[in-house]
Design goal:
The protein has 221 residues and is an alpha/beta fold. It contains nine helices and six strands, in the order H-H-E-H-E-H-H-E-E-H-E-H-E-H-H. It is globular. Its main location: cytoplasm. One of its GO terms (molecular function) is uracil DNA N-glycosylase activity.
Length: 221
């Protein structure tokens, strides 16, 4: 089955694309996009992979669903297109970076700049129906993104996994803890962050410390 995804990932995932569940998933997604407004736009569904080649992955951040409001989702978890108002979780991410690394609050919420440095911004579910959070869950995307996480874990070494919130922590069950560095905390959403589960986790400096210690280039957050 032909999937329009960056070549290094196509090579890693080609056996996944041939599995029956994936064909069923694609049929579902095509029907949803034909009959409903869905996000992100079709050409952005695999953007997390297109902006971060398999060979370049050194940090993985796991999200849950794409944003389901107009013009927000761009295929990278927590990221929005240029010029779009920052959603609450992204605001809290930038606040933590500001506190942790003294990096000024950015003007754009487009995280392609992270992806190009080797940060895989992976949502567990890659599509969603407009204004209906979770509407494309349990259709096969989770099986696919589990496979992605397992391939990164099995075939690479010294990757930093940032698991924020209970959902991401469950997705992290496939990671080999002996080969990789796993950092966990509460989710950056206001519900979790305002209860003290997010702010002060220092994940961004800790990730860079580990990258430096393993002779990798740090991320300019």
């Amino acid at each position: 089955m032909s999937v329009n995804i960056e070549n290094s990932w196509k090579e890693q995932l080609e056996t996944e694309f041939e599995k029956p569940y994936f064909k069923t998933l694609i049929d579902f997604v095509k029907a949803e996009y034909k009959n409903h407004t869905c996000y992100p736009k079709g050409k952005y569904i695999f953007s997390a992979f297109d902006h971060c080649r398999f060979d370049d992955v050194k940090v993985v951040i796991i999200g849950q669903d794409p944003y389901h409001g107009p013009d927000q989702a761009n295929g990278l978890c927590f990221s929005v297109k240029d010029g779009i108002t920052f959603p609450p979780s992204l605001i809290n991410i930038f606040k933590e970076i500001e506190d942790d690394l003294n990096i000024p609050y950015p003007s754009s919420g487009n995280l392609e700049r992270w992806a190009k440095q080797g940060v895989l911004l992976l949502n567990a579910t890659l599509t969603v129906r407009a204004h209906q959070a979770g509407s494309h869950q349990n259709k096969g995307w989770e099986q696919f993104t589990d496979a992605v996480i397992k391939i990164v874990s099995d075939k690479k070494e010294n990757v930093v996994f940032l698991l924020w919130g209970g959902y991401a922590k469950k997705k992290g069950a496939k990671i080999n803890k002996n080969k990789h560095h796993i950092l966990t905390s509460g989710h950056p959403s206001p519900l979790s962050a305002n209860r003290g589960y997010w702010f002060g986790n220092k994940h961004f400096s800790l990730a860079n410390t580990y990258l430096k210690d393993t002779n990798q280039i740090t991320i300019n957050w």
